[in-house]
Amino acid sequence: MKKIYFYIILAGAVAAGGMVAARPYLFTHKAVDQNKLVDDQSGQSPDNQANQNSDEQVIGGQKDERGCLIAAGYSWCEAKQKCLRTWEEACTTDDALKNYLRDNLSALSPEKEVLGGKFYVADLKVISSTKAEVTYEDGHNQFRAQFNYSLQDGKVKITNFNLITDTPPAVSNPAPAATTSPAQQGTVQLTFQPMQCEDEPWQKWYSEGGIKFIKEPTDEELIMAYYGQAHSLQINSASRADSGNATCNACYACPKSYSFTATVPASDAAALEALGWKQ
Fold first, then answer.
1. For labelling alongside 23, which of 39, 116, 128, 198 has CA 20 to 30 A away?
2. CA 156 to CA 171: how far, in whole Å?
């Protein structure tokens, strides 16, 4: 009888030990099942839904007022009424030409890059529906060219790419002419009186790029160069004289406080008088 009780007690102990051993597994299994619960509407677990929402925010990035993804390089094209990347799809004629020139300037230009430079577009002017002008450089030399273009199915074709070489060359400062007497040269002396608020014609010509000097020219040098190159008239000598007189400040009506005197060949005197000089 004692032996039977012994086996009963032993069986009870084994059963109790099994339940204790299985308890952590039951709790763990229940926690895993809860984590795998599926949302009725999305079909995804809450954790997966949160991760997806986070990913969408990172991928979307900041948008402008038109809804274009700024971080991805998109911008609004009014002409095409959509968001696009201008380096992939041109929005305007300017964009199309700039993209094409960026990739083809080296082949189009009669002059080639130097010292490892790479041509890039510095300025572009669309003159008409078939003609444009580009200023480009390689970091060392700058060039300007005109060309014909056509656009078909978004593709650019450029022909007649020609450099513009009308920029006046730099000249060294001309030496003043030797001073001689009017009797020897048949010359006359003329005076030019500038007015308030008006630039002297030679100064305006110089500031607009009519000529380039290696160093800043004197009044005499600039007067001689202006009338010689712009009007084919000879100035033997020229100088500025300050009058020292008080003047009014009314524009175009009052003289400035200085004037210019020039000695010129008699044969050119009439033409210079027509340009504002007086004897």
1. 39
2. 40
Among left, alpha and beta (phi > 0; psi -120 to 50; other), residue 257 is alpha
Reduced to 3 states (helix: H, G, I; strand: E, B; else coil), residue 127 is coil
pLDDT digits (tens, 9 = 90+) for 174-194: 555 545 444 445 889 999 988
Residue 78 included in any domain:
no
pTM of the model: 0.37
Distance CA 98, CA 182 (A): 60
Residue that is last in its domain, among 109, 130, 163: 163
CB 108 within 8 A of CB 161: yes
> DSSP states of 127-193 as a string?
-SSSEEEEEEE-SS-EEEEEEEEEEETTEEEEEEEEE---SPPEEPPPPPPPP--HHHHTEEEEEE-
Q: Are residues 151 and 228 in the same domain?
A: no
Enclosing domain of residue 142: 87-163
The residues, ordered by sequence, that sit 6+ positions from 80 with a Cβ below 8 Å of its Cβ are 91
d(CA 91, CA 80): 7
Which position has the token pair 């003609």? 131
Residue 256 confidence (pLDDT): 83
H or E stretch covering 123: strand 120-126
> How many CB atoms lie under 10 A from the CB of residue 217?
20
User: Where is 38: in which H helix or E strand?
Assistant: none
| Dist. CA 24–CA 140, nearest whole Å | 78
Of all residues in the chain, what percent are helix, strand and coil, respectively (each to 5)? 35, 25, 40
